[in-house]
Amino acid sequence: MLERTIIQQRGFRNVVGNGAVTGFQLRLRNPNYRGIAASLVDGVEIVIDGEKHAPEQSRWTLQGRTFTLDALRASTDVRWQLDEDAVVTVDHPGGLGAGVHRIEVAIHLRRPYIPEIAGPSVFRATATGTIVPATGGTQGLNYGVSLYSYSGDLYTSMSLEDSMADIADLGATGIEILGEGNIPGYPRPDAGWIDTWHRLLDRYGLTATNYGAWVDTAMWRERDLTAEEGRAQLETDLRLAKALGFTSIRPKFGVVSPDLEPHPIWQPAVERVLDLAADLDIVICPEIHSPTPIKHPVTQGYLDFIERTGSDHFKLLIDTGIFQTAPVDDGHEGFEGKKRPAFLEPLAVPMADLVEVLPQVHFIQAKFFEIDDELHDLHIPWADLVTTLHDAGWNGWLSSEYEGRREPYWGRDQVRRQHALLRGLRA
């Protein structure tokens, strides 16, 4: 599924040939209302950060074939269809620097049915695009993306395959999902969807990482769930996570206090599925999420549970929102009246606290809210966090979880920025 904008975010990258960066590529949607013969393409003017690239510098790839502009104009058997993007490769030794770039294009098309007196058909568009380094980042860390980052876009302006293609395009290798948020027919998706899921994982070289689940302890107004009912919900999600290839599951229990104290059934419910988790080889990871810091009775309760049970299949999940150093004022869906929910206030948990629990941390959701055009995160101290993980020798997943503005395509752009930022640390 193509993005509505002419300039596509996916596919903006440097091109490497014979061990050297020789130029860059971008993808363009046909701006016309109909598909056309490729011979009617009169070229594209491209301006990157104010630097002009003439149409003759570009090569066009359409329907799997690559042409110079002159060859494209002379072609007889290739078309630019409305549902296919064009890959434009620009010769530019050294390519573009990692980070955010301002892109301007002017696509020239000939339309024989429009009189010449009406002037040429020129379609202009501007956008920002992010070059993510092909290599780099801290050794030992693995980079993934949570589909939560695409909330609002997924299943409206992008398909599941679009999200997987985006994740692979920015060089990430892990995908995190929300069970009831991302699985059609949850909790019993049909076999065809499960087959498609595995096929897409293979196609895009992705690893299923963490599966988000809920235990809605206050499902009914007149009573809470029993521990046995909680166990049944956990078992359903554990088995579904296994069928989809996940190796960890985050159960979000209902809470009974403002600092996210989980409902008391969490311990007996989890204890009743520990043997199943071991059999399935899935790690159950409760989430340490703002406004709950690391040094807190809730976190200590999880640590005590680990020690008491001795299970290797119960660990912590850290949400990096707990390291937030500045408030977030963009609001949050579903909250009215109060300007800023407690979990958007800066908690600024010290890195030293993280070091103490890292041996029990299985997964990290790389929560963030906004990264600017200079690749500065306005809220999360990534350099400190990544240095802490590196120095402690922690090897695991950093899974992007964008939770900022929900304008169309905004999350996709922000995730690219975060990966460019992260890959630039200790590169």
Written overview of the protein:
With 427 residues, this protein is α/β, with parallel strands linked by helices. Helices cover 26% and strands 29% of the residues. The chain has 11 helices and 20 strands. It has helices at 69-74, 160-169, 179-182, 191-204, 227-243, 266-271, 274-280, 297-309, 351-357, 382-392, 410-423, and strands spanning 7-17, 20-29, 36-37, 41-48, 51-53, 58-62, 65-68, 79-80, 85-91, 99-109, 121-131, 141-146, 174-178, 207-215, 248-253, 283-284, 287-288, 316-319, 361-368, 396-402. The chain has a 9-stranded parallel β-sheet with strand order 16-15-14-13-12-20-19-18-17. A 5-stranded antiparallel β-sheet has the order 1-2-9-6-7. A hairpin with a 2-residue loop joins strand 6 (58-62) and strand 7. The longest helix has 17 residues, at 227-243. The chain starts with 6 loop residues before the first strand and ends with a helix.
Primary descriptors:
five-stranded antiparallel sheet; 26% helix; alpha/beta; nine-stranded parallel sheet; 427 residues; 11 helices; elongated; single chain
**Residues in helices, as a percent range:** 25-40%
As a percent range, the share of strand residues is 25-35%
Computed CA radius of gyration, to the nearest angstrom: 24 Å
* Unreliable stretches: none
Write the layout of secondary structure elements.
Blueprint: E1 7-17, E2 20-29, E3 36-37, E4 41-48, E5 51-53, E6 58-62, E7 65-68, H1 69-74, E8 79-80, E9 85-91, E10 99-109, E11 121-131, E12 141-146, H2 160-169, E13 174-178, H3 179-182, H4 191-204, E14 207-215, H5 227-243, E15 248-253, H6 266-271, H7 274-280, E16 283-284, E17 287-288, H8 297-309, E18 316-319, H9 351-357, E19 361-368, H10 382-392, E20 396-402, H11 410-423
Parallel strand pairs: 12-13, 12-20, 13-14, 14-15, 15-16, 17-18, 18-19, 19-20
Antiparallel strand pairs: 1-2, 2-9, 3-8, 4-5, 4-10, 6-7, 6-9, 10-11
